[in-house]
Amino acid sequence: MKLCILVVDDEKNIRDGLGRALELDGYEVLTAGDGREAQDLLSRRRIDLVLTDLKMPKVSGEELIKHIAGSLPNLPVIVLTGHGTVENAVVAMRNGAYDFVTKPVNLDRLSLLVRRALQSRVLVLEHEALKEEVAQLEKKRKFAQLIGKSAPMQRVYELINQVAATRASVLITGESGVGKELVADAIHNLSDRRAGPFIKTHCAALSETLLESELFGHEKGSFTGALGQKKGRFELAHTGTIFLDEIGEINPSVQVKLLRVLQERSFERVGGEKPLDVDVRVVAATNRDLKKEIAAGRFREDLYYRLNIVNIHIPPLRERKDDIPLLTATFLTELAQENRKTIEGIDTKARIALSNYSWPGNVRELRNCIESAVVLCKGNIVSLDDLPPQVRTAEDGNLIRLEIGVTMDQAEREIIRQTLIHFKGNKSRSAEVLAIGRKTLHRKLHDYGLVEEFGGGDS
């Protein structure tokens, strides 16, 4: 999506000349001969930046700036002014203008100013685009809590859709923090049992004796403190689904009883003798390698095969980094609302750091990272400095190192070259990061003999 710049000047030659220069930099350009015409365009079109003269008929530049400050406060304005009216430009900046340039206009300086003024605008638009992409993905899917468009996640979605309507037991595997519980939620919500109970049990959070009682219930007097009969989680989940999280943590005696439920669909309460029939769909999850647990004698092989009718493996975040921008946009919106803050996007350096970091804690760690950044952010754009130290240092992977003794020209050549390599020859993206116009970048490619390596045309 091209950014749109509105050039406002009562001199046709000036606005047309500036328009052509800005179009060469890759922008869409609209022109207006006075402030009234500009106001009309602003009411009908999305404009990303206004470049305006001050002295114009009908509605002056000063009045236009005041109008924009009142109705479009986030729209950047750059003022065109003559050398003799710089004081007026300074006043205009107090009234909301971003900066000014003097006539005759230095196009390289204008290109740099425009790019800087649009940086926040670009981040806001990118954030809005990501939010819209998330919304569209949610419309296509029936499970909105799972976020991601990468190939590994598409496979997860496919398996969820295939298995949800069946009665088969499902074993969800993956590292801690990848979202195993969200997959379990999706399976239940898409199944024909969704009207029934969905009972969750975190096996690692309960002691050996308490886990058995929690899962299967107990009779009055079956152990010290059992003052009455209690129904267990399996009984409560009748006609619905039970989710056994961290299934690899359960002890051998509970494993035996769990195997019987899966085989016979019946069990006895602790201290009871009467078998209780139950109709329950079992979904389990683990971050352990259960085959290694079987080899070590800690997990029953027959139970493993009963649980693992269908396996859904959720890849770690480091293996699906294409999903990081979507997850980040979602968490920014959600956590900004929770913390009553206005966050409109995340800057380039912070995005690079998020992409470079290995995320050992996976999606859970990313969410915590974004929450911390939202809380610490002083403005409306999350920057690299707002990220936790361990994530912030991941941005160092994009440093360009120069030897002591190189000349300024040699340094500039290497910076341009390495930036183009990083962005795979994309000149528009490289020019944006280098904060120069595309025509300036093309000229420097010729000056430094880089045309053969990267080409001289647009890309």
Structural class: alpha/beta
Assigned CATH class of the largest domain: Alpha Beta
CATH-defined architecture of the largest domain: 3-Layer(aba) Sandwich
CATH topology-level name of the largest domain:
Rossmann fold
Q: What portion of the residues fall into strands of 2 or more residues?
A: 5-15%
Integer-rounded radius of gyration: 31 Å
Shape: elongated
* Count of distinct strands: 14
Structure description:
The strands form 4 sheets. Strands 2-1-3-4-5 form a 5-stranded parallel β-sheet, sandwiched between helices. A 5-stranded parallel β-sheet has the order 7-8-11-6-12. The chain is α/β, with parallel strands linked by helices. The longest helix has 34 residues, at 107-140. It contains 20 helices and 14 strands. The chain folds into 4 domains: 4-125, Rossmann fold (3-Layer(aba) Sandwich); 152-315, P-loop containing nucleotide triphosphate hydrolases (Rossmann fold, 3-Layer(aba) Sandwich), CATH 3.40.50.300; 318-398, Helicase, Ruva Protein, domain 3, CATH 1.10.8.60; 408-454, Homeodomain-like (Arc Repressor Mutant, subunit A, Orthogonal Bundle).
Keyword list:
five-stranded parallel beta sheet; 12% strand; single chain; 14 strands; Helicase, Ruva Protein, domain 3; Rossmann fold; alpha/beta
Give a concise summary.
The protein has 459 residues and is an alpha/beta fold.
How do the helices and strands line up, and which of them pair or pack?
Elements: E1 4-8, H1 12-24, E2 28-32, H2 35-44, E3 49-53, H3 61-71, E4 77-81, H4 86-94, E5 99-102, H5 107-140, H6 151-164, E6 170-173, H7 180-190, E7 198-202, H8 208-216, H9 233-236, E8 241-245, H10 252-264, E9 266-267, E10 276-277, E11 281-286, H11 290-295, H12 301-307, E12 310-313, H13 324-338, E13 345-346, H14 348-356, H15 362-376, E14 381-382, H16 389-392, H17 408-422, H18 427-434, H19 438-447, H20 451-454
Parallel strand pairs: 1-2, 1-3, 3-4, 4-5, 6-11, 6-12, 7-8, 8-11, 13-14
Antiparallel strand pairs: 9-10
Helix pairs in contact: 2-3, 5-13, 6-7, 10-12, 13-15, 17-18, 18-19
